């Protein structure tokens, strides 16, 4: 069974530690692997995931808190961890790896040692627990990689601050550490001798200031939420990759056609337009596997509908493509047009499926492609289950196993706001009915949207002798999204430097366990 730190604390450590605290009269009480600070109680939880992978979490002791769920794919391994504590210091052993922790009156320290080397260390002032700022050092490393998505070099630059806050990064600049569409809070620290990694499992907005000097490191600051860090021992880059994937999951097995050539533009406007493109490829003896439809195929930018004038019989188009072994991808974004009579909107209102405004009463409203829009609250499982039904073939006109999904604008994008995304104080509803500010889970919104879309496609295979694997493409993402969808780097520009930058951008994603990724080769904007 797992070692009970609560038991260790109460029965063995606490009596020894309280005496010097009481004698000194200080306001800070230090409790071995639990740390309690007067006015802001905190406890430390260390879990062993096997092969030297350790998870360190700092959590409040006396109040409820938001914790990232649905990213980690497995439980800790039982019986592999041991702990010894002396005074204010603890040593937690897991095979060949050791986590050493200590606490001063103001600062929590931890070091992670494997293979006879200190791979990483962290420290955090406890006074910053509500808005954590953690200093990481990597004594064995010479370069840092990861923390996508940024349009910069593969190797992270020293003295640069990388923002991580999913947003609609319209016409983004390259060689700029600005936040883009997606986030994976993972760092690979590498040298020719040894490699290690950390995953900071927090879904709020982040800033990572890379620091160069005698020891390479970074200052990792988050807007809110827990300090919850996985440490990966390596010692090679490939081993770090395997260890990372063992925590957040492997890339989904893609359907075979999705590895071929995709033909997409904004926009094919009718069935005849699509068939002319299809026949043009045949006429020029050019192979392709999949045709894409952007938002103009819908009825007034209402997803899960078709323009009846230009696409009067969707299944005829689908079947014409399928007869040649080709597929169709249609777009389904998470914003919903606020139009009376639109079935998705009516069901969302009736079922209480929208993200709410700041006071938690009415549905949050903003502007997106359809104009006045509201956003599906994918944080709630009941809502994810409901939304998944729109991908069932009996609900989506033209829906077959030859029709797949493109999920765009799922940061989510809100046009009129400065950050081009939803307000931080918009409210999500948990499965238990509690309201939660968007700022806590913002970077995970896209992951939850993809979980619902994937679920709907899988459910459409009910009754078949085997599951039909879907192809889903997403613009926004978080750790774990690779289990459900491929991603692309969004609305880049038709410039040579954007084309050049796409290579390190995709390599950074691949290093961070998102290997099914791509970019618009010719660019999107002129």
From TrEMBL:
Protein's pathway: Glycan metabolism; N-glycan metabolism
Signal peptide residue numbers: 1-32
Glycoside hydrolase family 31 TIM barrel domain ranges (all copies): 252-524
Stated name of the protein: Glucosidase II subunit alpha
GO MF entries: alpha-glucosidase activity; carbohydrate binding
Main subcellular localisation: endoplasmic reticulum
A Pfam short name: Gal_mutarotas_2
């Amino acid at each position: 069974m797992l070692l009970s730190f609560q038991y260790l604390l109460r029965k063995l450590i606490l009596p020894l530690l309280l005496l010097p605290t009481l004698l000194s009269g200080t306001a800070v009480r230090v409790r071995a692997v639990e740390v309690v600070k007067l006015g802001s109680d905190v406890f430390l939880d260390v879990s062993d995931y096997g092969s030297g992978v350790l998870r360190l979490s700092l959590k409040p002791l006396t109040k409820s808190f938001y914790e990232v769920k649905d990213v980690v794919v497995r439980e800790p391994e039982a019986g592999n961890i041991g702990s010894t504590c002396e005074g204010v210091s603890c040593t937690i052993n897991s095979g060949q790896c050791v986590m050493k922790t200590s606490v001063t009156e103001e600062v929590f320290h931890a070091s992670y040692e494997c293979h006879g080397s200190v791979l990483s260390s962290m420290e955090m002032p406890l006074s910053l627990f509500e808005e954590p700022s953690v200093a990481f050092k990597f004594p064995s490393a010479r370069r840092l990689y990861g923390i996508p998505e940024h349009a910069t070099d593969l190797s992270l630059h020293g003295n640069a601050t990388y923002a991580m806050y999913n947003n609609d990064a319209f016409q983004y600049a390259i060689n700029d550490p600005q936040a883009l569409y997606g986030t994976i809070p993972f760092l690979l620290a590498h040298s020719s001798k040894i490699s290690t990694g950390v995953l900071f499992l927090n879904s709020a907005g982040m800033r990572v200031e890379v620091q160069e000097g005698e020891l390479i490191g970074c200052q990792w600051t988050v807007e809110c939420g827990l300090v919850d860090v996985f440490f990966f021992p390596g010692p090679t880059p490939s081993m770090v990759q395997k260890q990372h994937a063992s925590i957040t999951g492997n890339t989904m097995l893609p359907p075979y056609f999705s590895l071929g050539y995709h033909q997409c533009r904004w926009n094919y406007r009718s069935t005849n337009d699509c068939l002319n493109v299809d026949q043009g490829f045949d006429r020029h003896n050019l192979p392709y596997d999949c045709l894409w439809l952007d938002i103009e195929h819908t009825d007034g930018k209402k997803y899960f509908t078709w323009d009846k004038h230009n696409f009067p019989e969707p299944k005829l188009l689908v079947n014409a493509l399928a007869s040649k072994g080709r597929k169709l991808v249609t777009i389904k974004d998470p914003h919903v047009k606020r139009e009376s009579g639109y079935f998705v909107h009516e069901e969302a209102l009736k079922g209480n499926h929208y993200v709410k405004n700041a006071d938690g009463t009415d549905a949050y409203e903003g502007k997106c492609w359809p104009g006045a829009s509201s956003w599906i609250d994918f944080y709630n499982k009941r809502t994810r289950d409901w939304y998944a039904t729109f991908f069932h073939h009996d609900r989506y006109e033209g829906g077959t196993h030859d029709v797949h999904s493109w999920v765009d604008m799922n940061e989510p994008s809100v046009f009129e706001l400065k950050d081009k995304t939803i307000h931080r104080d918009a409210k999500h509803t948990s499965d238990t009915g509690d309201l939660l500010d968007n700022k806590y889970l913002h970077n995970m919104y896209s992951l939850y949207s993809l979980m619902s879309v994937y679920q709907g496609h899988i459910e459409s295979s009910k009754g078949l002798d085997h599951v039909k694997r879907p192809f889903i493409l997403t613009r926004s993402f978080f750790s774990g999204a690779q289990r459900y969808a491929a991603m692309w780097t969004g609305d880049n520009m038709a410039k040579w430097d954007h084309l050049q930058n796409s290579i390190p951008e995709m390599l950074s994603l691949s290093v961070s366990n998102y290997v099914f990724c791509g970019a618009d080769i010719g660019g999107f904007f002129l």
